[in-house]
Each structure stands twice: as C-alpha cells, then as structure tokens.
Design goal:
The strands form 3 sheets. Strands 1, 2, 3, 5, 8, 10 and 11 form a 7-stranded antiparallel β-sheet that branches. Strands 4-9 form a two-stranded antiparallel sheet. Helix content is 40%, strand content 22%. It folds into 2 domains: 211 residues, Jelly Rolls (Sandwich); 110 residues, Homeodomain-like (Arc Repressor Mutant, subunit A, Orthogonal Bundle), CATH 1.10.10.60. The chain is built from 10 helices and 11 strands. The protein is α+β, with helices and mostly antiparallel strands. Helix 2 packs antiparallel against helix 3, helix 4 packs parallel to helix 7 and helix 5 crosses helix 6.
C-alpha cells in the first residue's frame, strides 16, 4: 500500500522549539496539576481517491485528545465491528488510547478540522482519562459519559468552527515567534481555549443541544466583548445591545447556546485568571481581585471558594509553583 500523504488547507503543528504550556486551562488529578499543550490544529482535506488508503477497522494508539469537526463532505469510521457515518457537522471527541483512523472509507472529498492537545504534569506525564472525566474535573461536577460522536446543529457548528478559526489564527501568528519549552500562552490564546472548552462542555454535556435562535456572529460579538473585557464592569443591557437583541431575547439565546449566562461566563474567566495568578505570582488576594476586576476582596474570596471548593489562600498553598 502506498504511503499516505497528508493534505492540509492550513496547519499549525507544534515543534520542539515552540512548545506552549497553558496556564489558564489546567486541571488537578491525583494531586498533580496538568496543563494543556496544543499539539496541532489543522484543516485537513481528503481528496476523492484517498479512500483507496482506507484500511478496514484500522485503529491507532495515541496519547493525545483530538477534537475533530467535519465541515464538508462525509466519511465512515469503524471501531471493532461498529460502523459510524460522519457528515457535515459531525463532531468527534477522541480520548487518549485507541482511536479510529479518519481516512475516508468511500469515494468523495472530505474536509475536517483536527484539534489535538495533551495535558502534561510537571514531569511531562500525560493525562489519559476520557473526555467526560476531563470535563468533570474542569467544571468540578460529575458529568455522565455521552459517548464520543455527536451531530451538531448549524448554530453549534458555526460557533465551534469560528472558535477554532480564532484559535488557529492566534497560534499561527505566535508560531513564528522565538520561544522556549516554558513559553506560556498569550491571553488571547488562553481565552480562545477557555471559550472552546466552555462551549464543548455546555453544548454537549450541560444543555439540551437545541438550536439557538440567533446567528453565531451575534453571539461572537458578545463573546469577544466578554473575553477582551472580562476584568471590567459589563452589563447585560450593554451586551444585549452589542448583539442587537432585546435583553430578554439575548439572555434566552445566550444561555440556550452555552448553558450559562453571560455574567457567569465572565466569572469563569475571572476565576480562571485568578487561579493562574495565585499559582504563578506572589500577588496578594486584594491585588489579584483587582486585577481580575473584582473590587471587594471578601466577595472575591467567597466567589472563588464557591467555584473551586478552596479559598484563594488554600488554593495557592496546594498548587503554587513558587
């Protein structure tokens, strides 16, 4: 069989000289902190005759998480004796371990976005738990196993595609900069990662998966506003105006799409930024509270504990790298 040639429409692929370690997206498992590191984010195209490279029941052993979104064409996957059809809008969440090959089984052009990442502790050991357990650690509550293959509606597909594009643009521009193995993600990259993870969790595990009633670009404007200004005062009325919607319609549509309110999303960003500052700086709680946009340090402490089950002081004692 001929060696398979990979065709990329565009690609970001991590190199040894350009290894990013995420500081905003991190989880704790068995007393170790695991930080996200992007391995690749590519738009891959399979041409009409690539089906000839298909190997029945081919599976690969891989120690990375893969998010795969079908944006054009169709495909079929097989695992053991089970066959799955993948069409435009199909989303695969493939956990570390044995994963199916995505080489097309039938003739025809197919375009997919592949986002691969790993989570490593300080010793470089990867986290290999299933996706739903990873998400459970991140949100602090038990999420059931919903499987690994999903069919997105048009609104969900548009939001996910846009978010992956924003992340690609951020990673690609940064990939030309000098860096080292200890380089951390820029705030923009971290915000894109947080938005991506929040979207997957809220859409696939915490919401009803129904179509939102507004166009993705309207929500995207609001998400951009929250992410770029998470440490400033934002009002629902101002965000609704940004989306060109009434207050009631905006709140309903936003929560229907993400499973949380705009202000709750802002608080997620603030607390995750606070986690980063607590573990990587010597700033005191009052300084950190002000930095993430909360003027009352007592309110900040109560909010932090309600979302992490630890006070800021205890969180720093347990997870600080200092």
């Amino acid at each position: 069989m001929d060696k398979q040639i990979f065709h990329f429409l565009k690609a970001y692929i991590r190199s040894a000289e350009n290894t990013h370690r995420g500081t905003l997206f991190q989880v704790v498992h068995n007393e170790s902190i695991y930080k996200l590191s992007v391995e690749r984010l590519v738009h891959r195209i399979f041409y009409s005759d690539d089906y000839k490279l298909y190997v029945s029941n081919k599976e690969i052993e891989i120690y990375q998480y893969r998010v795969i979104l079908y944006i054009k064409g169709s495909n079929s996957l097989e695992t053991s004796s089970v066959k799955y059809s993948c069409n435009e809008g199909t989303l695969l969440l493939l956990s570390p371990g044995t994963q199916p090959s995505i080489t097309p089984k039938s003739k025809g052009e197919c375009v997919v976005i592949v986002f691969a990442f790993d989570l490593l502790n300080d010793q470089g050991i990867p986290l290999t738990i299933p996706f739903y357990q990873l998400f459970s650690l991140y949100v602090g509550k038990e999420l059931g196993d919903k499987g690994w293959i999903f069919q997105l509606n048009e609104n969900q597909k548009g939001l996910l595609n846009t978010t992956l594009d924003r992340l690609f643009n951020s990673l690609h521009s940064r990939s030309y900069e000098d860096g080292s193995s200890e380089i951390t993600y820029s705030l923009k990259e971290s915000e894109c990662l947080l938005q991506l993870m929040a979207m997957l969790i809220n859409q696939l595990y915490l919401s009803s998966n129904q179509s939102a009633s507004i166009h993705p670009s309207n929500l995207q404007k609001v998400l951009n506003r929250i992410e770029n200004s998470y440490n400033t005062t934002l009002t629902v009325d101002a965000l609704a105006m940004e989306a060109c919607l009434s207050r009631t319609h905006f709140l309903h549509s936003f929560k229907k799409s993400y499973g949380i309110t705009p202000i709750q999303y802002q608080m997620q960003l603030r607390i995750n930024a606070a986690k980063n500052l607590l573990t990587t700086t010597s700033m005191n709680c009052k300084e950190i509270a002000c930095e993430v946009g909360i003027s009352n340090v007592y309110y900040f402490s109560r909010l932090f504990k309600s979302m992490t089950d630890l006070s800021p002081t205890d969180y720093r004692k347990k997870y600080s790298i200092w």
